[in-house]
Amino acid sequence: MKSTFESRYAIGPVEARQLDTAGLRENFLIKQLFWADRVHFVHTHYDRYMVGGAMPVVEKLKLESIAGLLKEPYFLSRRELGAINVGGAGIVEVDGEAFALGHKEAIYIGRGAKEVYFSSVDGKRPARFYMNSAPAHRSCPTRRITKAEANRIELGSPETANHRVIYQMLLHTVIETCQLQMGMTELQAGSVWNTMPAHTHDRRMEAYFYFDLPEGQAVAHFMGTAGETRHLWLGNEQAVVSPPWSIHSGVGTGSYTFIWGMAGENMDYDDMDKHPINSLR
C-alpha cells in the first residue's frame, strides 16, 4: 500500500489569465485520483483543501499522515474528511467502528479520529472512495449518509438542458460539520449543463469531480472570472479545483454525475454571487 500526494499552489485571476491550455491544466485539473491499493491526495493552497482517492483492491488501505506535508501524528489530528463511494461496495473503519458504504453513499469523519481504514467487499469490483478534507477547529461526530438521507433539491428544466437533482449530503442542515461541505448532482435525461447560470463565492473555494461519464465522452468545465472565462476538457473520474474568484460550471457531451465539495469561512450553501448567462464573456 502506498500513500502519495502532490501540491497545487494558489494563483489569482490576473496570473491565471496569462496561462495557456497546458498551464491551466497543470494548475487546476486533477487527471487521476484512483490507483489500485493506493491513497492519493492533491493538496491545494486554496483554504488548504485536499482532494483525494482511495481504491482498495487487495489490501485494506490506511489513512496515514503524510510526511512532509501535514506534520501531524495522524491525518485527522487537525482535519475533517468526507468520502463518497463511486465504485463497488466498500467499508470504512473509524477507530474500530465499521461503516458499510454502497455506491453513491457518503461518510463524514470528524477531527480527532486516529485509525481510519478503507476496504472493498469484492476486490473484483473495488470501492473507489472520492475524498475531500479541510482543516477543522473542532470535532464533529462521524456519520454515514445515504442518498435517501440527503437534502434533495431539483433544479433547472429540460428546455434549458440543465434539469438536475442535487443531493446535499455533508451539509450543516443534514449533519454537523466544521467547515467541509460535500454533495452530488445528477443530470437528468437529456440535460447536459450543470450549475448554470454560473456563480462565484469569494468566501469559499470548491472542487468538482466528474464521473458516470460514458466512454468516449467528455465534459467542458468553465472557469475564470465571469468577464473572461476559460475552459478545461475533463474525462471520466477527473476533477478540477475551483478558486474562490472563479466561476465553476460544466457541459457534457453525454450524461454524467458530479460531486462538489467546498470549504471556507461561510457555511451558507446559497451564499453566492450570481452571474447572468448573458453577462459571461
UniProtKB/TrEMBL annotation:
Catalytic activity, reaction form: 5-dehydro-4-deoxy-D-glucuronate = 3-deoxy-D-glycero-2,5-hexodiulosonate
Enzyme Commission number(s) from the entry: 5.3.1.17
Comment on bound cofactor: Binds 1 zinc ion per subunit.
Database matches in InterPro entries: KduI, KduI/IolB_isomerase, KduI_N, RmlC-like_jellyroll, RmlC_Cupin_sf
PANTHER family for the chain: 4-DEOXY-L-THREO-5-HEXOSULOSE-URONATE KETOL-ISOMERASE (PTHR38461)
UniProt family annotation: Belongs to the KduI family.
Identification of the protein by name: 4-deoxy-L-threo-5-hexosulose-uronate ketol-isomerase
Native organism: Cephaloticoccus primus
